Amino acid sequence: MLEIDFELTKEKHVLWDQVVDELDSADPLYLNIKEGKLIDHISVHHDQPMREEGHLVETLFKRSGALAVLTETPMLDQRMLLSKEPILIAEDSGYDEKRNAREVMEAQDLLNAAGRAGQRWS
Description:
Layout: E1 3-7, H1 10-23, E2 33-34, E3 37-40, E4 42-45, H2 51-62, E5 69-72, E6 93-96, E7 101-104, H3 107-115
Parallel strand pairs: 4-5
Antiparallel strand pairs: 1-3, 2-3, 6-7
């Protein structure tokens, strides 16, 4: 993995500290931060992060030189604008808890996710 040396801003460092304090450890987090620096370009954005964790991941993904690859769960495809191109849609199905089975996404959901590629946050 390509290591980087991206210094967190004071604001981002506060968010990181809040999340780590709440969880008592950085182990369950999907960001690789050591001594106030992001050290790799890859993270995961899932559907149940702490508010501070989600904000930190999203803002680092927007920053040039920070996160370059962000994977997400299907639950997020309707809520996130993707600030980078290209977007890779790895599969066309998601897990449906009510049915206890995988369900193929509707065509409009795939088109919606693809159409958000390259859009910028305001």
